Amino acid sequence: WQLKYPKLILREAGSVPAQLHKEVQEAFLTLNKHGCLFRDLVRVQGKDLLTPVSRILIGSPGCTYKYLNTRLFTVPWPEKGSDAKYSEADIGTACRAFLKLNEYLQIETLQALEELAAKDRDNIDAVPVCIGPDFPRVGLGYEGPDEVELKNRASYNMTLLNFMDPQKMPYLKEEPYFGMGKMAVSWHHDENLVDRSAVAVYSYSCEGPEEEDSDDDPELEGRDPDTWHVGFKISWDIETPGLAIPLHQGDCYFML
Question: Where would I find the Alpha-ketoglutarate-dependent dioxygenase FTO catalytic domain in this sequence (predicted)?
Answer without folding.
Answer: 1-256
